[in-house]
Amino acid sequence: MQIQIVCVGKIKDAYISSGVVEFEKRLRPYGKIFITELAEVKIPDNASASDELRVKEREGELILANVKEGFFKIALDPNGMSLSSEEFSDVFRDAKLSGKNLCFIIGGPLGLSPKLLQSVEKKLSLSRMTFTHPMTRLILLEQVYRAFRILNGEPYHK
Ligand SMILES: C[S@@+](CC[C@H](N)C(=O)[O-])C[C@H]1O[C@@H](n2cnc3c(N)ncnc32)[C@H](O)[C@@H]1O
User: Which residues of the sequence carry a binding annotation for S-adenosyl-L-methionine?
Assistant: First the structure.
C-alpha cells in the first residue's frame, strides 16, 4: 500500500521535524509513505475574509494537482469524523483488502477551502481542538504507525 501525505507549509521547529523523521523511519516496514510538502500561498497584508478564501482556494488547487492519481483522499479537518485508533486501523485494513492507496491532506495556517473539503472522500478529525499544521503532521504519522501496529498484532497500542 502507498500512503501519501500532502501538506501545506514547512515545519520550522526542530522538535517536530525530528518526530516526523522518527515516525517516517518506523513506518518504512509497513508500506511506501511519502510526504508532499507544498509552499504556502502568500497571505496579503491586512487580508480580508475574501483574500483568505482566495489563498485557501489556490492552496486547494495546488493540493489536488499534487495528489497521486487514483489515491483515496482523506482530509484532516477538526470538523471531520472522529475515530478510535482501532477504527483508524480498519481504514488501512480495508484499503489493503481493496488494493487502495491513501492520500491524507493537511491544510496550511488558514486551513482547507470548502471546495477542497467537498471534493475529498473522507474528512478525519484528530480532535475537536485545532492543532498547528506541523503538529497535525506529527500526530497523524504517530496514529498511522499505531494503526499498523494494531493491524499486525504488534505491541505498542495500549
Ligand atoms: C492551523 S490548522 C487550520 C485552522 C483553520 N482555522 C481551520 O479551520 O482549518 C491547519 C491544518 O491542520 C489540520 N488540523 C488542525 N487541527 C486538526 C484536528 N484537530 N483534526 C484534524 N486536522 C487538524 C487541518 O488540516 C488544518 O487545515
Answer: 76, 107, 126-131
